[in-house]
Specification:
The structure is a homodimer. By secondary structure, chain A is an alpha/beta fold. In chain A, 43% of the residues lie in helices and 14% in strands. Chain A has two domains: 49 residues, RecR Domain 1 (Helicase, Ruva Protein, domain 3); 135 residues, 3-Layer(aba) Sandwich (Dna Topoisomerase Vi A Subunit, Chain: A, domain 2), CATH 3.40.1360.10. The termini of chain A are far apart. The complex binds zinc ion (2 copies).
Chain lengths: 198, 198
């Protein structure tokens, strides 16, 4: 066996999604063999992010500043807000560089099964953000799952009466598919063909 | 896009074996969402290993102490030395708990293609270790590859004349297979059926 410190590191890495105990061990060996060229830079990058990590109080994005880089960017169109379930979805959409507006992260989706209620998500902050004015369009970019669409319906109801156009991503998305796993082409098509809700 | 600090972290993680850009991004999101329960413990574990990492001057194992835990362990039989190509192989064999002796890590294998010569590997230190006495058996546990077996032959020649029994892992190992990927059952069988060389 390796030393307790190394075994503890393998266990921590094995908890990351996509890494099991075996690949975590290989990753540790990779780092150990490249102490200066891989281990030190990774440690520096992790420390930098860990020390500066903050949740944007405006949109729920996680970034190293609050407001986040997107909320603080004057070139982004504040009149359009894209609502997503998770930070991962925000990143996936934003990597595509197709949406020029701002975002709003719900922090999950309504789920009777998991006991997730409207008050567990950042839905009220979204309503307040839209009610504050200056927003023309809210793009509902929930996953194309039953729970994602239930969440979209709920938000549609909550925003009713506010002077804002609601759209949602076109369902060229594969049914049951999750945004974060889609290629940019699919995302682009879904975004281009977004349509009014209700 | 996420902040430059987060993008830098994704890039560092994506360089680990078994992780690509996509899974690195998911890993970062996983950490970011679990700052106290996952991110902080991982950072602590990485820092602890990085600060104490050292190569054992006796056997070439990488550990948090020198001599390493195996070399320092009086319950391990110093009369038997198992020679492996890489630290990964040492760990794989040692996890099986089947070999009660010590180890010797070569740091690679002879390879005309990659320009790896005998002086690039820890072969002379092995010869000195055996020549110093107190060693009854040297188990050659190279990979069952052409280069691994070439290395084993070379070491066999170099140890000729020294009063030591040379054995090698039985080739129940799949041809072309690499030690580090084998299940413990295969390793156990290969170790049990080890046979004299030459
Ligand atoms: Zn923000
Ligand atoms: Zn050692």
């Amino acid at each position: 066996m390796a030393s307790p410190a190394i075994e503890a590191l393998v266990q921590q890495l094995a908890r990351l999604p996509g890494l099991g105990p075996r690949s975590a061990r290989r990753a540790v060996l990779h780092l150990i063999k490249r102490r200066e060229t891989a281990f030190a830079p990774l440690l520096t990058a992790l420390t930098a992010v860990h020390e500066t990590l903050v949740t944007c109080q405006t949109c729920g994005n996680v970034d190293t500043s609050d407001p986040c880089g997107i909320c603080a960017d004057p070139r982004r169109d504040a009149r359009s807000i894209c609502v997503v379930e998770e930070v991962a979805d925000l990143w996936a959409l934003d990597r595509s560089r197709l949406f020029p507006g701002k975002y709003h992260v719900l922090g999950g989706k309504l789920s009777a099964l998991d006991g997730v209620r409207p008050e567990d998500l950042a839905i009220e902050p979204l309503v307040r953000r839209v009610a504050a004015g200056g927003v023309d369009e809210v793009v509902l970019a929930m996953n194309a799952t039953l729970e994602g669409q239930t969440t979209a319906h709920y938000i549609t109801d909550r925003l009713e009466g506010l002077p804002v156009r609601l759209t949602q991503l076109a369902h060229g998305l594969p049914v049951g598919g999750e945004l974060d796993y889609l290629d940019e082409g699919t995302l682009a098509q879904a975004l281009r063909a977004r349509r009014p809700v209700g």
